[in-house]
Write a structure and sequence with these properties.
Layout: E1 8-9, H1 11-16, H2 23-30, E2 36-37, H3 38-42, H4 48-58, H5 61-77, H6 86-106, H7 112-131, H8 144-164
Antiparallel strand pairs: 1-2
Length: 166
């Protein structure tokens, strides 16, 4: 488990995080650079969810918990379209944040990857709330622009948290 927030990551760090990208793809993304800072990760030409995945894993445990809670708060306050079930999505985001905190409190080092996933789940629910989902069944109706905007807000918050850490 990361005890201090990482300000930058190497290809080796990415492999240790168990990223789904091949070594060749990671080398291509790093383009000969030894390390990438959070802002560099934010601008990689990969899906936004993957950038969130990496940035969340750069945070230490308290940072991940704070991000999960931040996402839960965003889901709670997201404007919705008529019929959208913000309360349910907010509850899912809050549950993900709470589950994360329980793993951290238990001190289960082997659960660190799953704990990071809880923070990402909270981020996903915040995106869903911003899109005004009524249920999982109408995923295809979520406006791409709203999803993109919410992911950008999340990425900016993660970079801010990483850069502000000591």
């Amino acid at each position: 488990m990361i005890t201090a927030t990482l300000k930058s990551v190497t290809p080796g760090d990415i492999r240790a995080m168990l990223a789904c990208y091949s070594d060749e793809r990671v080398a291509q993304l790093w383009a000969g650079r030894e390390r990438l800072a959070a802002r560099d990760i934010m601008s990689l030409g990969i899906p936004a969810h993957d950038r969130v995945w990496c940035l969340v894993r750069m945070l230490n445990a308290p940072g991940r918990a704070a991000f999960a809670q931040w996402c839960a708060d965003r889901a709670s306050n997201a404007p919705t379209i008529p019929g959208a079930n913000r309360a349910t999505l907010s509850a899912f985001a809050a549950a993900s944040a709470r589950d994360y905190a329980e793993v951290v409190i238990a001190g289960d080092v082997t659960a660190a990857p799953k704990a990071a996933d809880y923070a990402i789940e909270a981020a996903d629910y915040a995106v869903d709330a911003a899109c005004g989902w009524a249920s999982y069944d109408n995923y295809e109706y979520c406006a791409d622009a709203e999803r993109t905007v919410e992911r950008r807000v999340q990425l900016n918050e993660l970079v801010r948290m990483i850069e502000a850490s000591e």
